[in-house]
Amino acid sequence: MTDHTNDAQSTVLVIGGGVGGIKAAMDLSEARKDVLLVDKAAAIGGLMTQLDRTFPTNNCDLCTISPHLSAGAREQHIELMPLTEVTALAGDAGDFTVTLTSAPRYIDLDKCTACGECHKQYPECVRFYPGLDHRAPTCMRYPQATPQAFSIDMAACKDVDALVKVCPAGAIVVDDQEKEVTRRVSSIILAVGAELFDPGKLDHFGHGRYPNVVTGLEYERIMSASGPTLGNLVRPSDGQAPKRVAWIQCAGSRGINREDVSYCSSVCCMYALKEAIVTKERFQDDIETTIFFMDMRTFGKDYEAYYQRAKEQYNIRMVRCRPHSIVPDPGGQEMRISYATDEVSGMTTENFDMVVLSTGFRPAAHTVQLAETLGIALNTHQFVQSNHFEPVVTSRPGIYVCGVSEGPKDIPETMVQASAAACMAARHTDKALHDVEENDEYPPERDVFGEAPRIGVFVCDCGQNIGGAMDVEALVQESAKYPHVVHAEMAGHGCGQEALARMRRMIEEKKLNRVVVGACSPRTHEGLFQENLRKAGLNKYLLEIANIRDQNAWVHGGARELATAKGKKLIRMAVGAVAQAGPLREHTLPMNKDVLVLGGGVAGMNSALSLGDQGYKVFLAERTGRLGGLAAVIRRNLEGDDVRVYVAQLVERVQAHDNIEVITNAIVVDHSGMPGKFQTGFQIGPRMYYRQIEHGATVLATGALAHRPNQYLLGRHKAVMTQLDLDDLIEAQPDRIKDWECMVMIQCVGSRTAENPNCSRICCQTAIKNALRLTDLNPEMRVFVLYRDMRTYGFSEDAYIEARRRGVIFVRYEAEKTPQVTADGDRVTVQFDDPILGRPMEVSADCLGLSTGLIADDETTEDLAAIFHLNRTEDGHFLEDHVKLKPLDMSVPGFFVAGTAHSPRSIAESIAQAQGVAGRIQGLLSQDVINLGAVVARVDRDKCATCLVCVRACPYNVPFINEDRYSEIDPAKCHGCGTCAAECPAKAIQLSCFEDAPIMAKLEGLLERIA
Amino acid sequence: MITAERKPLAEIIDYIDNCRRILLVGCNECVTVCAAGGRKEVAMLASAMQMDFMKRGKTVDIREMTLERQCEPEYVEELAPFIDQVDAVVSMACGCGVQEVVRRFRDKRVYPAVNTQFMGAAERPGVWAERCHGCGNCLLGLTGGICPIARCSKRLMNGPCGGSSKGKCEVSPEIDCVWQLIWDRLKELGIEDRYEEIILAKDWRTERGGGPRKIVREDLAQ
Amino acid sequence: MERFEPVIVAFCCHYCAYTAADMAGTMRLDYPANVKIVRVPCSGKVDPIHMMKALELGADGVLVAGCLEGDCHFKTGNVRAARRVAYVQQQLEEIGIEPERLAMVTMSAGMGTRFASIANEFTEQIRKLGPNPVAAVRKGQAAAEPVAQVN
User: Cα dist. A290→A216, A279, A300, A319, B97 in Å?
Assistant: First the structure.
């Protein structure tokens, strides 16, 4: 690990190693900032590592992220301190002194190989995380716990000497002590998450008393392949497969009773749907799934479609009711739920095999303690207080917050805040660090030219992942016989710290000049092993990976001999190919560090300011003639802040900023280049003069449109207006409004419909914001809100409660039976069915407010998508690279998305994205050069027949016939597809890394037995 | 450029069926460009030949070589170190290349692997069309720069004939009537009058009428 | 009689087919061990010579696997690959080797299931064709002929 003693001005302390903390740490390390990551637990990963799958993709996304968490990728900038808590803080932003207390692990991290002997022999002494167990037979949940080591619970250990003896690595440290250190850091990111509510405190649900009542997370563990039942869904009481499973939403949330919290946990609706869908996917018609809910809050990007799929495609039964209690069926193992619905008078009673309680987030007691230690304010719910216009800023300068510690939210929103916090925290670090040349730490590359190949073969067992499917020992013995192989050995978890260090040692000792690793896919781990070669003084291209896990062990799990034979062949092929490999140089270009931000709304301006403050030159291009976007016409947010003042200040700061150049009336017309070297052409102003801007990264903050569907007399009757109109009217003409007697609001106008299936996310809050302001002006005013599901997620539930307290009447309507609106002079008459009274109602209103929400700016996103080759969602928003893990990155490298161009969202959420994007861009632009890699086509001038085939075949028009009369391919422009190499009739072109020789060697290696 | 097409495999195999060691020689000029006999086609043919032999229970030793220009003695000389090790040479060059190898290695059997076609141009990638017949007396100056000898099915000097229809030749709808092309071109240049001038009967002695041709540049000849 | 186990080479493009093959593993889908993968950046990188050489060296079947049409990471590599496969199939016919021993397939990165089912079907197809006639002879040879180098 790097020496961090001299870290006063350059280190960011990240507290909490869940996905939020990890993301913040990774973003900072990408931006070449040093990070000290502390976590209370023995391994990082947080809650996400225990999830079976994540919505809305139903993928195990951890498999995607875990390689990035492994030590090799992060060690240069991230120092990890597990089992550690912050116990004191002094100093100010830019120079904090923090006291850290680490609990004893009783394990020497440098020695532990995670072999599992201690756990096998003395399970009671080992702190063991079922979700993190890499050895579970079919577990792929989290094969690489970081740090990959066990920890001992000494108090539980009766025979310490015996335990010490059982460890083959001698890693158990009996006299390990609690340690306290002080460190200087420049800024702090708080990412401690929250706990899940323990429903055992609610006696009416019987959790803890009845084994068949479980929490959502417990259900997740039962379904998980790495869980206690190895993924078999069984009823805990008797191990029988359940036939009927029910979910009860809002267990402990949205309540006013003992142990309840008033806020909404934001994620439980989606996770219940996910668990029900996954259950249905696995058992189809063999199982019945029922969800008891109050409001279905699927407000995220494309989440509404997920909800519709759950109902229509998977036949998940939705019952709108909050059951009071769960009681055991006297006849057996089943649980009985009685409930009432609108449709049926009286109570209905049903039995279920299992009941899942959808429990939400609660701030942990130690978080409250930690907030006190750090001196930061908490809100009324004991979550960290943040500012609506600065969503990751806490009450103490220099301390930032992200994820669930700031408020309930899902993983993508956590990721966004983490990147935003990384961006903000980096402001306090020493900028000079940028200039440190990173590669200095590597030894010089050994010249292997002219040496005969000396190949080392390292075969991973990856725990049971590879070792369980084939005879790794036999693979090693066989490899030793292959040509040029001078060393072969088992590598255990080859990607672990210990194994990598050993590989480097072997390279040196055995004078290896080529390496084959029998491992997982090169797609995920090639970079890691390449870097290891480089550290050992070898060129990183003297490596070949034989994919014996993803493409062998996992495919032939049940056929050991077959898998072993195929594994041998795969290694034989790799040995053949690596013998032909030569050292390669990577091509680089200078990085253009300017940023183009498209869109001058709140998101665009915040991105520009965050980047401009960091010293990046920003071009802020706005299509219209003014800055401010949609927010410029909003008067108040839900919390009552004056949005107009905020936007005006923002515009002023942007226009006065030395590093920001604002270009208005600018329309994008062309684009070329790659990250770090883009050129984008604009037509600017009424004269449409052409200007080309060179930039290194691009932010898409082009916003969305306020929807104005032709419904409910909108635009045809002056008493009918959108919530946006109403917001303005309340500020502009309060005296007129004061006299209104009755106001009706209709939700989901133009949203959640066949034409626009998604939820606009902001409308429920907006309606309540306006309802509260109306009742402020005139407490006697009758306000009706006609809604489908109230989606006041997170703390905005408090405003919903307040509105009801003030007598605002909320009436639900069904999508099939929308309210009827007719003109009545200056007034409008609204007819609707009241589901509780069970009869039609008619209200004469002074004003009808329509919650019309936002729709994508389809025309703009379509044009930009065509010019930049970007992906879009079906409804015309930009589609991010990965909905869960990379919510801000577009799949085209160098492009990022923020604000409502991504999906409908609040101002605070847009600002978080805007700052998050700035955090991501810091990482991208921290490098001084663009690495183009080494996979480029090279021309042998002596063989070239100047036939022009390559010139014509290249999809990027790179090759040309130069003055010396042969084809020339600029490595800076070559994309490395190899089309030219395959087409050249003179065989004058070879693609580095994929030359004919290694490909032929692979074929010969594979087929030599036959020959 | 000289164009060529590979011969059917069976014909090539027929020539060399009793050989065990073969030198397969490509050329890095015209036949490379028209994808008939460059390094890549040499490798393809070598593999095809090998498989054909193996299918019949035999194997051959095929040495692949591609010369810069097989119609030049110095380049052909590069074959000398290997020539004694082989039973036969198979050449993928045009007829000129094949004969140059024959001229140098009198006692070696040399077989062609391509059919030399015509002098042509690449109409588009992968498509080559005849453009010049090598008549020895170029009359492109009279025909708007488009050759009726190479491109008229009848080699008419004063066309078109009655078989020209809608700009196409009666021989095949794939073939443009060259006299239509010539007329269009003359019109574009505004020299339609030229069309009225009768081109006199061609003196074919400059083609093959005077026997095999030779060019001698006294100043360069050694 | 012992069941014929063909050897099949699959040239898989990095962005789609190779990823799909990894995905098949992640999904624990069983497909025949007969199929061995050679990774290439793009199916457009697969030279006709490689297809020929694989068969000459004794492979019983060769797959060229790229991205779905229109989805090539490098724009048109998969289209070129398909054309080359058709060309090599003609060559094989001339030699008298069943052209069905060579096939072009396409899939997206997420199609682990498709990769596994293609691997199954193609292996079955080749099993029906029987051993590569070239391979049958090779086994009888005492020693392989020296493979001549391309200059």
Answer: 14, 11, 22, 7, 82
Which residues of chain C lie closer than 8 angstroms to B8, CB-CB?
Answer: 94
Q: What CATH number was assigned to the domain covering residues A1-102+180-193+363-440?
A: 3.50.50.60
Amino acid at residue number B201 = A
Strand partners, A190: A15, A401
Q: Where do the domains of chain B lie, and which CATH numbers do they carry?
A: 2-117 (3.40.50.2300), 136-206 (no CATH)
Supply the pLDDT for residue A226. 58
AA identity, residue C63:
L
User: What is the predicted pLDDT for the residue at A51?
Assistant: 60
Query: Chain C contacts of B64, Cβ < 8 Å?
Result: 148-151
pLDDT tens string A545-579: 999 999 999 899 889 999 999 999 999 999 999 99
Contacts of residue A983 in chain C, CB cutoff 8 Å? 80
Cα–Cα nearest to B3, from B150, B131, B117: B117
Pick from A882, A999, A1009 the residue to mutate for testing the C interface (most C CBs within 10 Å).
A999
Which residues fall within 8 angstroms of residue B187, CB to CB, at 6 or more apart? none
Using alpha carbons only, what angle is made at residue A880 by residues A877 and A881, rounded to the nearest 5 degrees?
A: 155
Are A1010 and C138 a contacting pair at CB < 8 A? yes
Contact state of C141 with B59 under an 8 Å Cβ cutoff: yes
Q: State which fold the A595-697+868-930 domain adopts.
A: FAD/NAD(P)-binding domain (3.50.50)
What architecture is domain A708-852? 3-Layer(bba) Sandwich (3.50)
pLDDT digits (tens, 9 = 90+) for A717-775: 999 999 999 999 999 999 999 999 999 999 999 999 988 999 999 999 999 999 999 99
Q: pTM for the full model?
A: 0.72
Determine the topology of domain A104-177 in CATH.
Alpha-Beta Plaits (3.30.70)
* CATH value of A937-991 in 3.10.105.10, 2.30.30.40, 3.30.70.20, 3.30.70.360: 3.30.70.20
Rounded to whole angstroms, the Cα distance separating A47 from A740 reads 50
Specify the number of domains making up chain C.
1
Domain map of chain A by residue range?
A: 1-102+180-193+363-440, 104-177, 195-362, 446-579, 595-697+868-930, 708-852, 937-991
* Cβ within 8 Å, pair B125-A949: yes
Nearest CB to C91 within list B44, B54, B60: B44
SS3 A239: coil
Q: Which residues contact A901 (CB under 8 A, 6 or more apart)?
A: A599, A603, A700, A701, A702, A703, A704, A856, A857, A861, A877, A878
Which range, of A446-455, B187-196, C96-105, C136-145, averages the lowest pLDDT? Answer: C136-145
The interface pTM score, or ipTM, of the predicted complex is 0.95
Question: By CA distance, what is B124's nearest residue in A?
Answer: A952
Contact B48/C52, CB-based, under 8 Å? yes
| Residue appearing with tokens 């004939």 | B161
Q: CA–CA separation, A632 vs A857, rounded Å?
A: 17
For the structural domain made of A446-579, what CATH number should be given?
Answer: 3.40.50
Contact A1011 C9 (CB under 8 A): no
Average pLDDT over residues A163-167: 82
Q: What is the dihedral of CA A199, A205, A210, A212, to 10 degrees?
A: -90
- CATH superfamily, domain A195-362, is FAD/NAD(P)-binding domain (3.50.50.60)
Half-sphere exposure of residue A856, counting CA atoms within 13 Å on the CB side?
25
Q: Which of A952, A953, A986 sits opposite B38 (nearest CB)?
A: A986
**pLDDT tens track for B88-110:** 999 999 999 999 999 999 999 99
Interface of A with C in 46-85 (CB under 8 A): 63
Compute the distance between CA of residue C87 and CA of residue A622 in angstroms, rounded to an integer: 52
